[in-house]
TrEMBL record:
It catalyses: 3-hydroxy-2-methylpropanoyl-CoA + H2O = 3-hydroxy-2-methylpropanoate + CoA + H(+). Keywords: Hydrolase. InterPro entries: ClpP/crotonase-like_dom_sf, ECH_dom, HIBYL-CoA-H. GO terms for molecular function: 3-hydroxyisobutyryl-CoA hydrolase activity. Pfam families: ECH_2. GO terms for cellular component: cytosol. This is 3-hydroxyisobutyryl-CoA hydrolase. GO terms for biological process: L-valine catabolic process. Signal peptide: none annotated. The keyword Transferase does not apply. Its EC number is 3.1.2.4. Residues 16-332 form the Enoyl-CoA hydratase/isomerase domain.
Length: 364
């Protein structure tokens, strides 16, 4: 039997449908999938027969667990073992993938038609990039959203630093540095999602989009979300995560005197110090817009592809699963390397973003 495509592109009525189709890997996104998705979106942007787009994941486990981590590990292992520089990182499969993925993320953020992201189940890393930048973001009671990159020696990318740095009361800083998961209700409180539809109603909701349009479907099936657990922790998070260094954030968490704050401190302390320092710096120095954030994240991503913590973090968390990464720096030394991490790339390797294609096509 012929294998199915890893991205299913379909039109039902006047609705374009994109389904990530790797359910066994929770729809992990690879380069070919990002390109196929972007091609469909560009075609539909200027097609008068298409009124809206729906993006979902095959199976019941989630929209997308993130990038193809095994492929990234291969590049990180090679580049961090002495054969890496900015040029090699940019020209690696991961570097090329990120460049096209980030272009996709940017076009999603300016898509000229309703872009309905079904953020059901696991939505992490690259899954956030193809959903949270959209204009109609739907979560459910099964949503588990997160940017867990600091746990694998990486940093939030796909515009994650831009999204999280804009969340009030340091809730975005909390999510980025702990790498924990958020519920659908949490995502709405943080401004990362718009509507809450119970998972049991998703099929009917999608049918209603086809028959009645996006607005009518939302009006019929979206409900008030339950209380957000994260929102109830807002007061101590606001104070503890306002500190200027990772070490001080950990100290403030331990001083709060509640179990949830102690757990947060423990989680942060287990992450890569280099990743934490770069993440906090990116959050504290928010870019003016998503395009600028993606360009900076691309630089940082290539630098971490060359950093031994990334290969080691993926090994410990995903490959060997011993959960015992041997990080190469402490918090003080990690902070001292930030200038090099964020420095511009050689000009020919800076990320080029076509920010006008979809918008111009939609105005023809």
């Amino acid at each position: 039997m012929t294998d199915q495509p890893t991205v299913l592109i379909d039109v039902v009525g006047r609705i374009g449908q994109v389904t990530l189709n790797r359910p066994a890997s929770i729809n992990a996104l690879d380069h070919s999938m990002a390109l196929a998705m972007h091609d469909a979106l560009r075609a539909w942007a200027n097609d008068p027969a298409i009124e809206a787009v729906v993006v979902a994941g095959a199976g019941e486990r989630g929209l997308c667990v993130g990038g193809d981590i095994a492929a990234i590990h291969r590049d990180a292992s090679k580049l961090s073992s002495g054969g890496g520089d900015d040029a090699a990182a940019a020209e690696s499969p991961s570097g090329r993938f990120w460049a096209d993925e980030y272009r996709l993320n940017l076009d999603i953020s300016t898509y000229p038609k309703p872009y309905v992201a079904i953020m059901d189940g696991i939505v992490m890393g690259g899954g956030v990039g193809i959903s949270a930048h959209g204009n109609t973001r739907v979560v459910t009671d099964r949503t588990r959203l997160g940017m867990p990159e600091v746990g694998i020696g990486f940093v939030p990318d796909v515009g994650g630093t831009f999204l999280l740095s804009g969340v009030p009361d340091e809730l975005g800083t909390f999510a980025a540095l702990t790498g924990g998961t958020l519920s659908g209700a949490d995502a709405i409180v943080m401004g990362l999602a718009d509507h809450y539809v119970p998972a049991e109603n998703l099929d009917a909701f999608r049918d209603a989009i086809v028959s009645d349009g996006v607005d009518a479907a939302v009006a019929r099936y979206a409900v008030t979300p339950p209380a957000s657990a994260l929102d109830s922790e807002r007061d101590w998070i606001r104070e503890a995560f306002a500190a200027d260094t990772v070490s001080e954030i950990i100290e403030r968490c331990r001083a709060v005197g509640v179990e949830s704050a102690d757990r947060a401190a423990d989680r942060i302390a287990s992450k890569s110090p280099a990743s934490l320092a770069a993440t906090l710096y990116a959050l504290r120095h928010r870019d003016s817009d998503l395009a600028a954030a993606l360009r900076r994240e691309y630089r940082v991503s290539l630098r971490f592809l060359q950093h031994s913590d990334m290969a080691e973090g993926i090994r410990a968390q995903v490959i060997d699963k011993d959960r015992a990464p041997a990080w190469t720096s402490d918090h003080a030394s990690a902070a001292a390397t930030l200038d090099a991490v964020f420095a511009p790339l050689p000009a020919r390797y800076e990320l080029s973003l076509d920010t006008t294609t979809v918008q111009e096509e939609s105005n023809v």
